[in-house]
Design goal:
The protein is an alpha/beta fold. Helix content is 35%, strand content 23%.
Amino acid sequence: MKLPLECLYTASALGRGNDDTLSNLLARKAPGMAEISGDIPGRSVWFGSVPGDIPNVADGCGNLRANRLLGLAVDGARGAFAALVEKYGADRVGIVLGASNTGVDEAERHVDTWLDRGEKPAEFDFSALELGTPAAYLKSVLGTKGPSYVISTACSSSAKAFGAARRLIERGICDAVVTGGVDGRCRFALNGFHALGALSEGRCRPLAPDRDGINLGEGVALFAMARERADAKVFLAGVGESSDAYHATAPDPEGLGAEASMRAAISDAGLSPADVDYVNLHGTGTRANDDMEMKAFGRVFGGAANAPRYESTKSLTGHCLGAAGAVEAALCCLLVGAGRCRTALSNSFAFGGSNASVVISA
C-alpha cells in the first residue's frame, strides 16, 4: 500500500530543520560532527550532535534528551502537526516511534548521584527508563488520542516504525500516523560500543578500505503518514523486514538477512531493483557490516554496471542508533522531494539480525 509521506522535521549533526539538513547534505557539511570527551574514561571520540542548544521541555523526569529533541521537532513544525490533528481528528491519529536509549543516560546520572549521596534524587523516576516514554511525551504534546507506542529493535527501530505505522492505516485503526524516531547522546551506548571495539579512532569512513569503526550520533525525524493526500509529492512505497538471528552483535557475513529485507522492500513497492536510483546504505564503517552489506547489495542490484547511486551518510550524522532509520529515511524524503532522485531505498540493520529496508518514491 503506497501512502503519502511527509518529513515534517529532522535534526542531526547535519543541522536543524529540513532546509539546513538538505543543504548541508548536498554540500557534505556536518556542523554537529566533532570530537567529544568525558563520556568514555580516558578516550576522546567523534560524535554527531544536533547543533545548538536544545530547549528544556519539563522539570524532572520529563526533561530527557530524547523528549527535548522531540520538543525541538514539534516546535519546528507546530503548524503542520496541528493541521494533521485538525484534519483527521485526535482519535484517528496514531504515533509510532523507534528509539533505543530513551532516558538511559539521565537515569544513569541519577543513579550516580544516588550512590554518592545515599538517597534517591527527588526528581528521579524509574519511568525515565521505560521505552514508551518518547511516544507518551509526544502524544501529550500533540494531543492525539490514537494508539501510541515505541519500537525498540536497536538500530533498525525507526525503520521498522514505518511498517508498523502503515499497518495501523491499512487496518483502519488510524487515518494518519506520526512516525519516525529519536535517540539522544548516551554514555551507556558510547561505552558499550567502546567495549565491543567498534568505535573509530577518528572520523568514520564507511566503505573505505582503511575503515576502522563507527561514530555514534543523535537525531530526530518525524513524519506524517496519511491514508490520502491530494497534494502529496513523496510516498512510502515499500517496507521490507527480515530477522536472520545470526548473532547477538555480529552481522551474518554473507548478508542474507540484509538481502532479504532489500528484496522484500522493493517487491512490496511493486518495483524491480532497476527502478531504484538511490540507496542510503546502513554503512556503519565497521569491516563486518560494510563487507556483508556490499555482498548483499551486489546480489540485489547485479553488480556495478546496474547499480544505482549509493552511499552511507553516517560520516555526516554519526550512527543515530534507534533514530538512524528515521534520520536516513528523512534524507531520502528530502532528496526525492527536491528531485535529486525518484526512488530511494534506505537500509537499517541491527544487533540480533533485525533488518529493515524502506522504499521512498515520488
